[in-house]
Structure prediction request, 62 residues.
Amino acid sequence: MTNEPNTTPPETATTAELGKQLQAMDEEIDRCRMRIDELRKQRPALLARIITLNRLKDGTRL
Prediction:
């Protein structure tokens, strides 16, 4: 009797399954990029509002 380790390969996903997972990940990345672009477009307006609110709070003239 020998002391060989268990060499049974682990269960693996098929190429098609991996392709579907990769496609889903790519779609999620695209959605995130679009959301980042939307937020970047809003940034100047939000900064202007923050400055205005801070000036109002401090009593500084607009």
User: Anything to note?
Assistant: The CA atoms of residues 19 and 25 lie 10 Å apart. The longest helix spans residues 15-58.
